[in-house]
Amino acid sequence: MASTLPARRRLALLLLPLLVPLLVRSAPAPRVPPSGPRELVIGQSAPFSGPSAQTAKDYQQGLLAWFAEVNRRGGIHGRRLRLVSLDDSYDPQLTLRNTRRLVERQQAIALIGIFGTANSKAILPLVEKVGIPFVAPRTGARALLKPFRPMVFNMRASYQAEIDQVIDHLVRDGRHQVAVVHIQDAYGEDGLRSSQAALARHNLRPVAIAGVQRNSTNTAAAARQVVAANANAVLVIATFTSSASLSRDLSRLGSRAQLMNLSPVGIEGLQDALPGGQANGIGISQVVPFPWNRRVPVVAQYQRLMQRQQKVASYGYSSLEGFLAARWLTAALEKAGPNLSRARVAAAFRSLPNLDLGGFRLRLKPGDNQASDLVELTFLGSQRWGP
After folding, report:
1. How many whole angstroms separate alpha carbon 211 and alpha carbon 225?
2. CA atoms within 13 A on the CB side of 25
3. Total tally of structural domains belonging to the chain
4. Confidence tier at 325 by pLDDT (50, 70, 90)
5. What is the mean pLDDT of residues 325-340?
6. Judgement on whether residues 164 and 153 belong to the same structural domain of the protein
7. Domain that holds residue 69
8. In this structure, are 216 and 267 located in the same domain?
């Protein structure tokens, strides 16, 4: 049967198989999405419930204030930062479970701001196994500093440095009868050893040593030990719940001993737990600059960005520590280059041996993962510091 199609149309149909490859090659190539994730996940496990919840939330606000600013500027190598924070209620087993989730499911590029000595120790094997940077753990325990751990980047001063400063101050003030009250966990045990070493430098020993359960308000027996030993100073190695309870018990017993705490106590929680001026005179060692001193450039920046982050600006040591840790991490992320990996970020930290964030300097030495030795002593007054 003869074809009824016009000659031109039959010719077009015959040529079509030859033309299609040419048309495909000449068409513009479709846009291929860039390889790798569009965002960088930063993982955090912290006690967002329980007695230390406010301290953890304050630290988180400092992280978010800087990460939000980085995202406003276009992110890190074009990628937005996303903080994934999980609650561990200060339970080391929950911290380990959360960390596995952050590492495996969330594919976090780094971990930041893990709270607690026991909690940080619990995740060290996993950190070293997968090779993820563990940035600014909120502990100064020697277990994270020695032996050298190449994936741990510790921002804060050690507990030994804090306690040395506290004991030196007490001895200069003529207070040689020093008692030590510590919580019975890894933090308290590390602090007790450091206290004994600090006192030994002055040929002194604790006049009393008392242990209390973590976050316990059952401190009456410890207070009686302190009074029986005629202590004129007490170094308290505990969170604010136990420290405030001990302060009230000592006051009821008529003790006028100088109370000194370490930075993890949580200054805001301690003030809340001791209202009406009861916290007057209590000392606390701190490992970051005074958050209300705008003459320090990084503190001025922190205050400005906290005002942008919060409806009503609130400043404090915990949020400033989070802010500084976030700045340190993003400096390493930038330094690591566009082809980011956990190993490259760790290498970038080591290539930033002397970093000035604006009045807060971080120095890493070969074989040493502690970046700051800053310790300052503060003493609570009848009024809170404010903006």
Report:
1. 10
2. 5
3. 2
4. very high
5. 97
6. no
7. 39-157+293-373
8. yes
| SS3 assignment, position 45 | strand
- Examine the domain organization and report whether 111 and 129 are in the same domain: yes
Question: Beta strand pairing status for 361-363 and 354-356?
Answer: antiparallel
Q: Please tell me whether the overall predicted TM-score, pTM, comes out greater than 0.85 for this model.
A: yes
Phi, psi of 251 (to 5 degrees): -60, -40
- CA neighbours closer than 13 Å in the CB half-sphere of residue 178: 31
What span, in angstroms and rounded, lies between the C-alpha atoms of 223 and 229?
10
Q: Cα–Cα distance between 121 and 57 in angstroms, integer?
A: 22
Q: CA end-to-end span of the chain, whole Å?
A: 95
Radius of gyration of the chain measured on its C-alpha atoms: 28
The pLDDT of residue 2? 42
- The one-letter amino acid code at 113 reads G
Which residue, of 286, 315, 346, is where some domain finishes?
286
Joined tokens for residue 211: 């242990």
Structure-block tokens of residue 36: 């790798």
Q: Nearest 5°: phi and psi at 339?
A: -85, 70
Amino acid present at 304: R
Q: How many alpha carbons fall within 13 Å on the CB side of residue 40?
A: 27
Torsion over CA of 57, 62, 67 and 72, rounded to 10 degrees? 110
Is the distance from CB of 221 to CB of 183 less than 8 angstroms?
no
- Calpha distance 246→225 (Å, rounded): 11
In a domain, residue 344? The reply is: yes
For residue 285, which amino acid is it?
A: S
315, 306 Cβ separation under 8 angstroms: yes
Q: Are 292 and 385 in contact (CB under 8 A)?
A: yes
The rounded distance, in Å, linking the Cα atoms of 282 and 267 is 10
Cβ contacts of residue 357 below 8 Å, gap of 6+?
298, 324, 327, 328, 331
- Helix, strand, coil abundance in the chain, percent, nearest 5: 45, 15, 40
